[in-house]
Amino acid sequence: MSAKNFSFIIVAGGKGSRLGAKKQFMDLGGKVLWQWSADEAAKLKEISEIILVIPKDFDAEKISWNSSIPFKIVHGGDTRSESVLNGLNAAECDYVLIHDAARPFADKNLFSALMNAADEFTGVIPVLPVSDALKKIDLSADGHGDEKNISIVDRDKLFITQTPQSFPRKKLIEAVKKNLNAKDEAESWLDSGHKLTSVEGQRLNFKITWQEDMTIAKSLINQQKITRTGIGYDVHQLVPERKLILGGILIKDSPLGLLGHSDADLLTHAVMDAILGAAGLEDIGNIFPASDEKFKNADSIKLLQEVLSLVNSQGWSVEFVDAVVEAQVPRLNKYREEIKNNLAKFFEVNIKFKSAENLDDAGRGLSMTCWACATLTKEI
Ligand code: CTP
Ligand code: MG
After folding, report:
1. What is the pLDDT of residues 63-82, one digit of tens each?
2. Which ligand sits nearest to residue 19's alpha carbon?
3. Closest CA to 216 of 204, 224, 202
4. Which end of the chain offers a freer environment for a tag, N or C, measured as fewer CB atoms within 10 Å?
5. pLDDT in tens, 299-351
6. pLDDT the model gives residue 148
7. What residues are paired with 125 via a beta bridge?
8. What residue ranges of the chain are covered by domains with CATH 3.30.1330.50?
C-alpha cells in the first residue's frame, strides 16, 4: 500500500467576534497566530501541502510565510463549513487534516497520531474528557441562572473535540456540502453515516476564543523573550566645592562632591552603562561625549531618560538594576530609600553601599566607585 499523503488545511476565515479582533492574524511571539500550526505541519513528510483559508474580504497579498512546502491561500465563506469546503476544493491530496488557525499549540505528535489512524473510510478526531462540572442553563432576561432554569449535566462520557481532524478528502467534500452549519467536520461526517474514531487530544491545544485565551497563550510562550545582563562601572574624584549627587539625589551633609564634566552622578552613570551594555550598545562616554559643551553640568537623570528611550526604541525593557557604591565617606545608608525611590520611577532597582576598608583612593576618601548590573528583556 502506498503511503498516505495529506493536505493540511488551516481555517482562518472567521471574524473573531468573541475576542473582538481577527485573532488568526494577531501576533503571538513574533509570529502570526496561524503560522504556529503551519510551521508545525511543515515538519512532517506525510504533509504535502498547506492550504490557508482566509476571510472572504481579506486581501491575500497581505499574507506572507516562508514555507518549505507547497502553500496555497483561498478565500473562506460565511460559516466555518463553507470555509472548510473552499479549502477542500483547493486541496489535492487523498487525505486532509482540517485545523483551526485559532489553535496555535497543536503539535506534530498529535498530527502523526491522527494520520496514522486515518484510512479511506474513517475520520479521526482528537478528544479530551471534560474536567469541569457541567450545568445546562436557560439564561433569564437579567443574564443569571436560577434553580428554575439550571439543570445538571453528567460529565461522565462527555468529551471536548479539538482539531486537526483527519478525513479522506473526497468523501468529506460530499459530507460537508450536506450541512453548511455544522460546528465541525466530525458532525457532517457522522451525519453522512461514516466511520469515526478518536485519539487523545492535547490540553495545550486549546482554542483561542476569548481575550483571556490570548493572555494565556502569550504567557505560555514567555520563553520567547530574550534576557540580557549588562555591567556598568564608574569612578570619580571626591573634591571640595562640588555637590555630591547620587541617583539624582543631593547628599546634603557631604563636604565633598564628585568631580566631573556633568553632575558626576556616578551611580546613575554606572546604571546607564549597565543598561547600554545589556542592549549591546556603546557606553555613555560615546553617547554623551565629555567634549560636548551641552553635557557640562548635565543632569544625569535626564541622560538616563535618554538612554531608556534609546533602548526602549530598540525593543528592550529594563527589568531590574542592582548597584553597589563604594564610598569611605560620607555614610550613605540613610539616603538609600530616597535614592532607590528616585530610580524606581524608571525600573525595579536595588542599591547597596560599601566602605572601602580604608584601602586605596576610595578608602582614603579621595574617590568613589560604583558598579551596576542591569537585566533587560526583549520579545522576539
Ligand atoms: N472560521 C473560518 N470561517 C468562518 C468561521 C470560522 O475559517 N466563516 C475559522 C476561524 O478562523 C477559526 C476556526 O474556524 O480558526 C474556529 O472558529 P472560531 O473559534 O469560532 O473563530 P471565529 O469564528 O473567528 O470566532 P468567533 O466565533 O468568536 O467570531
Ligand atoms: Mg465562530
Report:
1. 999 888 999 999 999 999 99
2. 1
3. 204
4. N
5. 999 999 999 999 999 999 999 999 999 999 999 999 999 999 999 999 999 99
6. 85
7. 198
8. 225-379
Q: How far is CA 288 from CA 99, 207, 274, 275, in A?
A: 54, 50, 15, 15
DSSP-based helix, strand, coil % in the chain, nearest 5? 30, 30, 40
Q: Please, is 200 exposed, middle or buried when counting C-beta atoms within 10 Å of its C-beta (0-12, 13-18, 19+)?
A: exposed
Ligand 1 atom closest to the Cα of residue 15 is: 24
Range(s) within the chain of domains with CATH label 3.90.550.10: 6-130+158-223
Measured in Å, residue 58 CA sits from the centre of ligand 2 at 16
Nearest atom in ligand 1 to the alpha carbon of residue 209 is: 19
Query: Could you report the per-residue pLDDT of 355-378, keeping only the tens digit for each?
Result: 999 999 999 999 999 999 999 999
The CATH H-level superfamily of 225-379 is 2-C-methyl-D-erythritol 2,4-cyclodiphosphate synthase (3.30.1330.50)
* Pocket probe mutation, ligand 1, options 8, 9, 11, max atoms within 8 Å of Cβ: 11
Residues with CB under 6 A from ligand 1: 11-19, 24, 53, 76-80, 83, 100-102, 207, 209
CATH of 6-130+158-223, one of 3.10.129.10, 3.40.50.300, 1.10.40.30, 3.90.550.10: 3.90.550.10
| 106, 186 contact by CB (below 8 A) | no
Compute the distance between CA of residue 266 and CA of residue 345 in angstroms, rounded to an integer. Answer: 18
Q: Say yes or no to pLDDT of 2 above 70.
A: no
| Centre of ligand 2 from the C-alpha of residue 211, in Å | 14
Are 147 and 196 within 8 A, CB to CB? no
